[in-house]
Amino acid sequence: HDLLDNELPDTEVFVVSNREPYIHNHADGRIVVQRPASGLVSALEPVMRACGGTWVAHGSGTADRDTVDAEDHVQVPPGSPAYRLRRVWMTDEEQEGYYYGLANEGLWPLCHIAYVRPIFRESDWQQYVAINQRFADAVVREATRPDPVIMVQDYHFALLPRMIREQLPKATILTFWHIPWPNAEAFGICPWKEEIIEGLLGSTVLGFHTRSHCNNFFDTVDRYMESRIDREQASVTLGGHETMVRPYPISIEWPPAAMEGQASVPDCRATVIAHYGLPDDIRIGIGIERFDYTKGILDRLHAMDDLLTRYPEWLGKLVFIQVVAPTRTKLASYATLQDDAIRLTEEINQRHGSETYKPILLVIRHHEPDEVYQLFRAADVCVVSSLHDGMNLVAKEFVASRDDEGGVLVLSRFAGASSELGEALIINPYDIHGMSDAMHRALSMPEAERRERMHLMRTHVRERNVYRWAGQILLDASRLRKRQKVADFE
Ligand code: G6P
User: Fold this and answer.
1) 208/91 Cα distance (integer angstroms)
2) Separation of 218 CA from ligand 1 center, angstroms?
3) What's the CA-to-centroid distance between 98 and ligand 1, angstroms?
4) pLDDT tens-digit readout, 232-281
5) N or C: which end of the chain has fewer CB within 10 A?
6) What is the per-residue pLDDT for 487?
7) Is the separation of the CB atoms in 237 and 276 below 8 Å?
8) CA angle in degrees (0–180, nearest 5) for 307-365-254
9) What mean pLDDT, rounded, does the chain reach?
10) Whose alpha carbon is nearest atom 12 of ligand 1?
11) How far is it, in rounded angstroms, from Cα 258 to Cα 30?
12) Higher pLDDT, 98 or 489
């Protein structure tokens, strides 16, 4: 907030994302507010609470329309308003093409190397273009000044930066790509690669989580576009417009709001043990995420199977609670994953379990942030086994939840978080033996080592929190705005 006041005084700030931070749904004759499971929302929401401004997003709840004023706005968070949410509406058919189709059957598997084939349909592309234009028009209509700061989020809006730039040439457009950017060869199969790159290069700053994603982007531009790339200055110039391309590793708020009112670690453990009817001395493993094929959930279940086979001392002594939030369930790839996970869990539980012991508890439902933190605090080990992940904020949330410096994090080397959280036990999720060895090591780790590792990771996440992430992007934006002012004198 201070940074905005000092560096970008009197600026209008917008965030644009597909997913809204508060979803209003009808339930039992009431309106219930849901906080979606989305790394993007977990990161951006605290920033907006601190800075104020307008968040433009798709209104996806059954009661969203009931909560807005005539201008489609609602003040959020409910009960303690800090910023405005501007909903954009779309029909089911538009959502099919833009969100399920192009964004999630096309770009999502294209950018995540998880060996799921991307699907590109011309009709999806048409909807994607139309919805990007609708969001661009909504932002332009909301803007009361010619030079707002607009933070465009993620792969749903690759075309938005250019579309906004055409109408608001003086806008500072800060685009953040929350998922990986693949190598040029892999990206090259996209039939609309030029349009997507051109769209993104309407930005003032384009951010990725890691330097290697930035390098992949430079290589992609180099391969497919006529442009000027300055790797030293980390910029690309296309059609006379220059875009800075930089890594900004995203993070979480510190301290997290969900830590407020949490019981002590032993009490959280006792609550979870009572809830699932587990013995008092049980060791607990935890995995929490959306039910997404990029998260390596089946691989993790296989590792549990392998652990109980090769280290039978854990039989009856360890339970793995796998919490999964249903997501994008209309898509075949997601529905299949859910079926496979249920079947595999039953198989493993039959193989290693008994009347009274189920080694894996598969819990399929949405959990609110305070429930997630309670589970983290109850766990001995948290496993994040993404096959490919931009950052993965679950890893950072687990670390943030452990103010007792307890718990061990097992983390995939293919998640962006692994380049920051080197004190986790780093694994290759494709190597099942390696993963189960790491789980065994985590469960057997001496307390001093556990504390030291957790302490170092907590220090890192506390310092590199999400305010710092946003601050870094806004500082770069402010520098570029000042530079532009000087250039305008010439
Ligand atoms: C990832 C994406 C976000 C998205 C989230 C949840 O983190 O980068 O943009 O919001 O998944 O997915 P969903 O499709 O439910 O919004």
Assistant:
1) 31
2) 24
3) 14
4) 999 999 999 999 999 999 999 999 999 999 999 999 999 999 999 999 99
5) C
6) 84
7) no
8) 80
9) 97
10) 38
11) 24
12) 98
Dist. CA 315–CA 309, nearest whole Å: 9
Residue nearest to atom 8 of ligand 1 (CA): 178
Q: Kindly give, in sequence order, each residue whose CB lies less than 8 Å from that of residue 446, ignoring residues fewer than 6 positions away.
A: none
Q: Tokens for 435, please give them.
A: 């993963």
- Bridge partner residues of 362 (DSSP): 322
What is the C-alpha end-to-end distance of the chain, expressed in Å?
Answer: 32
Nearest CA to ligand 1 atom 16: 19
Output the CA torsion sign for 221, 226, 229, 235. negative
Which amino acid is located at 79 in the chain? G
Contact indicator for 96, 67 with CB cutoff of 8 Å: no
* Residue that is written with structure tokens 């234009």 in the block: 133
Q: What would the two tokens of residue 156 be?
A: 């749903």
**Structure tokens given for 177:** 């790509």
Cα of 19 from ligand 1 centre, angstroms: 7
Name the region of 116 (left: φ>0; alpha: ψ -120 to 50; beta: rest).
beta
> Ligand 1 center to residue 325 CA distance, Å?
12
Question: Where are the strands (E) in 368-427, listed by range?
Answer: 381-384, 408-412, 425-427
Question: Pairing mode, if any, of strands 205-208 and 381-384?
Answer: unpaired
Residue-wise pLDDT for 346-365, tens only, equals 999 999 999 999 999 999 99
Count CA within 13 A, CB hemisphere, residue 2.
Answer: 2
Encoded tokens for 15: 């965030």
**Residue closest by Cα to atom 6 of ligand 1:** 38
For residue 131, how many other CB atoms are within 10 A of its CB?
Answer: 25
CB contact at 8 A, 87 and 59: yes
pLDDT cut 70: percent of the chain above it: 100
In the numeric block, the tokens 């457009």 are attached to: 173
CA distances from 70 to 65, 66, 67, 86, 232 (A): 10, 10, 10, 11, 49
